[in-house]
Structure to design on (1116 residues):
């Protein structure tokens, strides 16, 4: 895959590896050792002979072997010199874990630029600085702080925040959620979100990419790359810093600009990225995308052993634009023979409080058989005689054979109960609340629409004539002005691809008539004067002028 | 308290108590025995001598003792006769667990009415039928299916759905959330939501009431009672059946009408009920209300050891209408001395990834001291060296002394980790995602506004002239019609307090002029004819008629 040195290194050096158990340089080296990495490992530390049984070198240049990847955990001011060493050694990729760069102010930013230019000189790529590192679960590279790795799975995560990154990893490990890769972006001095998205787009094992971002370095490229990736697999993203309060917090966090929320909305839409508003939703969605097929339509079957949760799910479906499916008459009649007389066979199907796995199985199979159903929500509430485990088995078994998504909401059970573990093993995403299950299915449906809409149609491409804008602004500056004239402002807008009505400033009755003729009717007329701010207040605006004579009359009136 | 027989019975009979471990009649009796109830228990079953060591009686009338509460678990058709027995015995309250009443159709509804009339005859009150029962944690009455009781606490729950009820109980038990009472309403043939809300309003130990409802029996009384209760403690409610799909599901679930969503919104608003849209939000809010003081304003301090989650929290605050507080200059300077140089002391306060309990303590204490702060969100992400447990201790300790709400978001930790347990013991509500913590605080602020707004101002009271409406409708029925005339419809609307323009049907040019004069100008004129549905299509509507002569002309035109 792309970025091979980062994802599939054959040999890794840890520069700043330490023997002190509490130091980050120790943790990262230990993680690499304990994660089961099959390649060669080299701790670099001039003050140690060996670390965890591995021979230590004073400099990466002393290692008698090629180095694909170097993980750097030394104080910021020392980073340039060790990066120089890496370059001389012919290292392909470096990960700078160390903080103390662009995020701390001017001096740090200078140091960061210095490191980037060393990388450029040697053709090395860099992840970070100021990041948690990288994990590739498949080939067991854990070049990060994380104490353990998630299980293997289909989800990749890319995070601009280290703290969110560690929360994501903890969540995955604690909930036994399978991952492919985890990337902490840090300051993105060289490699940025687009680079990693591009690589993950080509990664066969990754079915869905989760993304936490605060800002984007090169918007055009980000949209282009993400737009290609989302043709192949979904990207689910949370954008932090969407409000004034959040933007202020971003700027005091990383010093970067968060960008306007509307711009991000448009960019995400164009790129086909599914946007979520909370971290919880981000987790909920990658779970579903990572394990279930994409629905072909919006028609949902709800199967439940309790009326209340079924109603909540039906409400959620309608609110979110999904449709409650109607089963075909024959399928419903067949089901009727398998259900007790009081069961409600309209959708939601209520298999009743004393339902066993047989009733759940019958209802789910009806949903799979029906050509009116695109996806299934299966709800279980813990009632006196509910055989959770056997029902979980049945759902998982049916899920394995299904080409329609099945999303579960087994409510009120412990995470480590046998039923929940069975669902996990069966790759049935489970949500403790029915509304979250519906939200997951709705987002999968949304992705089916993204897949089927030509990328060009999402948002028209806008040509921006940057040169033209620059020359207008420069001219204003040269003249020492602080404002644009109306004509200049309209020219800038036009050059930026913003549609503007034809307009001109006229200075006589005759000119008004001629220009109005040229523009075509109806036209609007306004007073232009620096002294008049609120034109309508003084009758300074006349709309719907329909002829040359009207235009001439109105000029006089104005 | 009110409904004493239900909440604090001295003696309980279980009619239909069984020796078969899987039967509901056994479970309920066993729950009463094992919950540690201090009063006297009597199993009633003509076919058993003793159950779980308690002497069994053939009928409640054979019990040589007074009975406060009878829990009835016999088949529906037998219920009237045992209720009659209860009446003769002088039982004060009955809980009918059995299903097979109004929820099953006409016959069941007839049976239900029969049972109610027996209750009325003897002055007994009834909970149910078709319910899970009741739990009073304080005096250890577990007259329900639930296998065990929640811990003692401050939250009461009232549920119209049995399945949701059991999910609520499981949630409480699994998460060690403390409850006061739990009530499953069932069909509400006699006692309804308002009755139990009224009783819980007077219950000193209950600080917050959670409510799941699908429909309300007596809307006026519900609003009146709930309006009084919410002056004393918050009611957090979820209304199921708010969409067409949900309403259809409600009607196939209980046969009852769900009522319009707009009507419920208005009713909840008038009653000062806090409405949530998901079950998860319901749980999240009762947790906060049950343990933290109500904030006096909307200004929030965010304390975090990671930038990303702080930004998400700041975004959430602004989106939800909370304000990011500014600390006073002196407090900030004092804090600066206690924090490392890179900490961000603007709000969110970033105590940095290596923060210990000392930094958290300093930041929280600054928040308590500041008169610009009304509530605190404290976020922790699991980083390499984070001493979770000691930080949880510090937060709990400060929480004990605080009169401002403190809400935690310790992210990515296991539910049974020491830190999470410490927060629970310290009564600090904890949410794994920062947005949920903000939502809780925002809802508490919302309640502070409810408390400070006079109830009369919430929504003006509308006088409905029910008699007038009834007589109009009766008249239409008598005439065998299925539609109201325009005049009748307007009269009904007026009688219901809906403002209507003055209007009349006229049958001549002269009449049109006279009536238009009487109404006052401008008036609108329309054709009234059963043959014409879309009046505007054929020019059958004329607006802005300004004088008698215009009215006369237009009459001719129409």
């Amino acid at each position: 895959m792309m970025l091979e040195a980062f994802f599939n290194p054959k040999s890794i050096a840890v520069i700043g590896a330490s023997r002190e158990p509490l130091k980050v340089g120790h943790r990262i080296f230990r993680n690499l050792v304990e994660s089961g990495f099959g390649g060669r490992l080299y701790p670099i530390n001039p003050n140690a002979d060996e670390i965890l049984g591995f021979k230590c070198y004073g400099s990466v240049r002393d290692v008698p072997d090629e180095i694909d990847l170097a993980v750097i955990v030394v104080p910021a001011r020392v980073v340039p010199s060790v990066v120089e060493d890496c370059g001389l050694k012919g290292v392909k990729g470096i990960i700078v874990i160390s903080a103390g760069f662009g995020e701390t102010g001017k001096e740090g930013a200078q140091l960061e630029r210095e490191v980037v230019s060393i990388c450029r000189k040697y053709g090395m790529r860099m992840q970070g600085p100021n990041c948690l590192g990288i994990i590739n679960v498949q080939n067991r590279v854990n070049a990060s702080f994380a104490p353990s790795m998630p299980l293997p799975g289909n989800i990749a995560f890319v995070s601009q925040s280290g703290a969110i990154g560690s929360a994501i990893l903890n969540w995955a490990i604690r909930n036994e959620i399978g991952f492919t890769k985890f990337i902490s972006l840090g300051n993105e001095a060289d490699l940025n979100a687009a680079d990693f998205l591009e690589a993950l787009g080509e990664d066969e094992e990754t079915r869905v990419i989760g993304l936490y971002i605060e800002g984007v370095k090169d918007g055009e490229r980000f949209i282009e790359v993400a737009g290609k990736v989302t043709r192949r697999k979904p990207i689910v993203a949370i954008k932090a810093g969407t409000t004034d309060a959040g933007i202020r917090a971003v700027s005091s966090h990383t010093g970067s600009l968060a960008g306007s929320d509307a711009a991000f909305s448009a960019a995400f839409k164009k790129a086909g990225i599914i946007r979520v508003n909370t971290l919880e939703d981000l987790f909920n969605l990658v779970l579903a995308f990572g394990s279930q097929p994409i629905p072909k339509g919006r028609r949902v079957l709800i199967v439940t052993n309790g009326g209340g949760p079924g109603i909540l799910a039906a409400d959620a479906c309608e609110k979110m634009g999904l449709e409650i499916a109607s089963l075909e008459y024959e399928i419903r009649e067949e089901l009727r023979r398998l259900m007790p007389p009081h069961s409600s066979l309209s959708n939601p199907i209520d298999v009743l409080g004393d339902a066993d796995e047989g009733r759940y199985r019958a209802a789910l199979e009806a949903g799979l058989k029906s050509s009116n159903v695109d996806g299934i929500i299966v709800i279980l509430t813990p009632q006196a005689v509910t055989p959770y485990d056997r029902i979980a088995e049945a759902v998982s078994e049916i899920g394995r054979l299904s080409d329609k998504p099945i999303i579960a909401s087994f409510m009120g059970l412990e995470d480590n109960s046998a039923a929940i573990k069975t669902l996990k093993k069966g790759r049935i995403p489970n949500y403790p609340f029915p509304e979250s299950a519906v939200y997951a299915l709705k987002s999968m449906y949304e992705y089916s629409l993204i897949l089927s809409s030509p990328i060009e149609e999402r948002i028209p491409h806008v040509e921006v004539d940057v040169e033209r804008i620059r020359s207008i602004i420069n001219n204003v500056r040269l003249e020492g002005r602080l404002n644009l004239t109306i004509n200049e402002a309209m020219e800038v807008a036009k050059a930026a691809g913003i549609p503007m009505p034809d307009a001109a400033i006229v200075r006589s009755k005759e000119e008004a008539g001629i220009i109005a003729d040229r523009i075509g009717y109806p036209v609007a007329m306004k007073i232009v004067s620096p002294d008049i701010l609120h034109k309508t207040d003084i009758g300074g605006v006349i709309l719907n002028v329909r002829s040359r004579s009207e235009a001439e009359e109105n000029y006089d009136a104005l």
Notes: Residues 434-452 of chain B form the longest helix (19 residues). Chain B touches chain A through 75 residues (CB under 8 Å).
